Amino acid sequence: MNPQIILKDKFGYDTFRTGQQEVIDNTLAGNNVLAIMPTGGGKSLCYQIPSLLLDGVTLVISPLISLMKDQVDALNENGIAATFINSTLDHIEIEERFNQAATGAVKLLYVSPERLDSGYFNELAQLPIRLVAIDEAHCISQWGHDFRPSYLRLTEIIQDFPSTPTIIALTATATPKVAQDIMQRLSITEEVKTNFSRPNLSFKVVKDQDSDQFLLDYLTVNPDQSGIIYASTRKEVERVYKLLQKNKTPVTMYHGGLTKLQRQKNQDDFLYDRLPIMVATNAFGMGIDKSNVRFVIHDQVPGSLEAYYQEVGRAGRDGLPSDVILLFKLHDVQIQHFFIDQSEMDAQNKHREYLKLQEMTQYANTQQCLQQYILNYFGEDGPVCGNCSNCLDERESQDITVAAQKILSCVKRMDERFGKVLVAQVLTASRVQRVKQFHFDKLSTYGLMKNQSQKSVSELIDYLTASGYLRAAGGQYPVLQITEDGLAVLQGKETVFRKMAVQAKQSLPVNDELFEQLRALRRELAEKQGVPPFVIFSDQTLHDMCAMMPVTLDDMLRVKGIGQNKLEKYGHQFLAILQQVDEK
């Protein structure tokens, strides 16, 4: 029997996905291999199929109890003998399952890394283990976003087995540095890496908006869809959960403060679509194989791009179009800083986490294609996706070279030894004590941008950093340094452009044809309801419709004066007029 026959006979697929055949061939040849595939890329088949072709037992190391049970149940449904050993079993059940593995009654045995290092080694050493599959392998690397100390002992434990099993390590998120670390620790010689691109996902960053209102508006125009809303703290999870409940949204929640029984019930309600929307901390999601998640929204910024990409990967596993949205707020970055500050990590690991958080902040501020930015972060080249909020941004690009030069010059005159906040304070002529302390009020760049707010200058600094003209060096308190590209701008050799909001017209001629059509509809609706026309929509709202020309209900929510209630009442009727004009 060959892998192709097993693929069809046991799993019902005609062809392998990209990378699967290569991983399986390496494994069957006895080569230790690292498989890096995106969420939904079919990593589990890469060790499940070889397990049926090799003698002995395949040991699968998985960090999550729920994932173990789901995979074992799925394998048994496919007629493949598999079982697991974890903390939910008593001693008698564990011994029985070891006996099943020893006698060949099961082909795959799932265990957690903690179980390997808690007195079970002697039993495992008696088993004919030919293949060891390490899932979520990024957990073994201190450079990874989900490092787990229990993974560090894996190499020693595997080496102490009487036989020398083949190793296959699998992960959905690994930077080149993390991949190198995994391969070195596990003595892996082969790497199979498929494209990280998820073309069915539409990436979006939302800034400077009321995130609560955005959530309510989004759910209004996307009813009956299943999705996950992530927050960083239990408190925020419960607040958003109550907000959506009050809005009559079918929602549940998940965080570590709930009882085990409540977490399981809520998870089942979500999985079985009884409550299609889940608000959760990052404790939720690993091992959740729900294919119809149509959106993943981060209400708060996560700590790293690795964590973000893994979490958004839970959307659109069925390949259908799905939204992934980051609601970026500066305050949430400070929350992540607090988490790092309060952690028990040593100084070196804290420094790494600060750098990852800086990269996450730069992602939120870039005007590069969002999916391309992520691919570049993971060491891949790729074309623009044409589908993210940056690719679809139709705002005009404006020359901001002079403003950029002011910022770069100020950074230079401050000897590249200070951070964003102080640079913005100097440029906006702040009189805070630190500016006076370092005599920065005497610099020629002091007050060069005093007609702007510190917030807007800080945002411009973030843009220059995300665009590669500045770099944020250091950990907890990063300082700004000028890159080679930034130096070229400072010397007048390069021009800087930034997409800026187009100013909507403040008024339109009263005889404007479209405006008159909208006003006529407004008058008709007002007469039917016995209210003044401005109660329906103000003139400014009608003018904004003319200027923005929304083409969908989602677009309509961006028009000033249109909230969810008015959208439901009047959105379709006004949109019909706008679409008629657009078709002419």
Spell out the blueprint of helices and strands.
Layout lengths: L2 H9 L8 H9 L4 E4 L8 H9 L3 E5 L3 H13 L4 E4 L5 H12 L5 E4 L1 H4 L4 H5 L3 E6 L19 H6 L6 E6 L4 H10 L4 E4 L7 E7 L3 H11 L4 E5 L3 H13 L4 E4 L5 H12 L5 E4 L12 E6 L6 H8 L9 E7 L1 H13 L4 H19 L4 H8 L18 E4 L1 H13 L6 H8 L5 H5 L16 H13 L3 E4 L5 E4 L1 H7 L6 E4 L12 H17 L3 H4 L2 H10 L4 H4 L7 H20 L1
Parallel strand pairs: 1-6, 1-7, 2-4, 2-5, 3-4, 5-6, 8-13, 9-11, 9-12, 10-11, 12-13
Antiparallel strand pairs: 14-17, 15-16
Helix pairs in contact: 2-3, 14-15, 15-20, 17-18, 17-21, 18-20, 22-24, 22-26
EC number: 5.6.2.4
Cofactor: Mg(2+); Zn(2+)
Catalytic activity: Couples ATP hydrolysis with the unwinding of duplex DNA by translocating in the 3'-5' direction
What's the quick description here?
Residues 210-361 form the Helicase C-terminal domain. It contains 26 helices and 17 strands. The protein has 584 residues and is α/β, with parallel strands linked by helices.
* Low-confidence runs: 502-511
Strand element count = 17
Largest sheet descriptor:
7 strands, parallel
Q: What is the total domain count?
A: 4
Shape: globular
CATH topology of the largest domain: Rossmann fold
Mean pLDDT: 86
Q: What is the CATH class of the largest domain?
A: Alpha Beta
- Work out the helicity level: 40-55%
In CATH terms, the superfamily of the largest domain is P-loop containing nucleotide triphosphate hydrolases
Strand order of the largest sheet: 3-4-2-5-6-1-7
Q: Supply the number of helical segments.
A: 26
Q: Measure the end-to-end span.
A: 63 Å
CATH architecture of the largest domain: 3-Layer(aba) Sandwich
Structural class: alpha/beta
| Radius of gyration from CA coordinates | 28 Å
